[in-house]
Design a protein that fits this description.
Elements lengths: L1 H21 L10 E10 L6 E8 L5 E7 L24 E5 L11 H16 L5 E11 L1 H13 L6 E5 L5 H8 L7 H6 L7 H7 L12 E6 L7 H13 L4 E6 L10 H15 L2
Parallel strand pairs: 3-4, 3-5, 5-6, 6-7, 7-8
Antiparallel strand pairs: 1-2, 2-4
Helix pairs in contact: 2-3
């Protein structure tokens, strides 16, 4: 367990460095799409939040997937490692959002920001060629937790499908795994205190505790060699979804650890998943 926890610390630091290194790097618009950068969608407590919109040029307004980046709820950028970026080639817009980091506000502020983004898209998406009535959500790692919670709290009439990449599905379990005396883990910083003092909030933040038949369809992808978030978290989450009658798929990437880019086969499945569920 100790080596697992150490790996978690090193992994998050590495991810943070990569995110910082890539924050200022944006690719140009691709043929057949339009990019709108730094569109403000909320300002909770005066903290301005922005999204980037990748919109395909289609005859009719395009469905949209809300992308939520990972980074331990503490690091990251809307402009880097947008794993579903190529959905525009399938006629689906992508809205990559910023949200408050745990250094700015504790949970559930991050989820509230995701809700604010979805509402903004419903109110203003048409101005950008987006049909927000056909909306899905996706995220990786901590962003996968937020995407899953967004699907659970918005419901399938508003979020039609969720693709969670190596998500945290049980915050309580992971918080206990990484807890150390005298120092708050990244999960405890999200919660605002030691895990044993924040169990109610941790349980509330855990998608596995919000499984019901009211959830939208799910696609979960997790690396078999993930030493940051155990693949067993996704296995148990998938089984709980299936037991509740939720339409769910689970893909294990046998040679992947944590925080990986989708390969062609995985992306094709993600694209198919959203095309099916956002076309209705």
């Amino acid at each position: 367990m100790l080596s697992f926890v150490a790996t978690f610390g090193r992994g998050c630091c590495l991810i943070a460095l990569l995110l910082v290194a890539g924050c200022s790097t944006y690719g140009p618009a691709r043929p057949g799409e339009k990019i709108y950068r730094d569109v403000q969608f909320a300002a909770p407590g005066g903290h301005r939040l922005y999204m980037d919109l990748y919109v395909p040029k289609t005859a009719q307004p395009a469905p949209v997937v809300l992308w939520i980046f990972g980074g331990c709820w503490r690091f990251g950028s809307k402009g880097y490692h947008v794993n579903v970026r190529d959905l525009t080639t399938a006629g689906i817009a992508v809205a990559s959002i910023q949200y408050r980091m745990s250094s700015t506000a504790v949970y559930p502020a991050q989820l509230e920001d995701c809700h604010a983004a979805t509402q903004w898209l419903r109110d203003h998406g048409a101005e950008y060629g987006i049909d927000a009535k056909r909306m899905g959500a996706s995220g990786e790692s901590s962003g996968g937790q937020l995407a899953a919670e967004l699907g659970a709290t918005e419901g399938k009439s508003r979020i039609r499908a969720v693709c969670a990449l190596y998500p945290v599905s049980d915050v309580t379990e992971l918080g206990r795994l990484y807890a150390k005396p005298g120092r708050l883990s990244l999960i405890e910083k999200l919660l605002g205190g030691p895990i044993e003092q924040k169990l109610k909030l941790a349980d509330s933040a855990s998608p596995i505790n919000h499984v019901s038949p009211a959830l939208p369809p799910f696609l979960i992808i997790h690396g078999a060699r993930d030493r940051t978030i155990p693949v067993q978290q996704s296995e148990r989450y998938f089984l709980a979804l299936a037991a509740a009658g939720v339409e769910a798929q689970f893909m294990v990437a046998p040679d992947k650890g944590h925080w990986f880019r989708l390969d062609d086969v995985q992306f094709a499945e993600v694209s198919r998943f959203f095309q099916v569920h956002l076309s209705r």
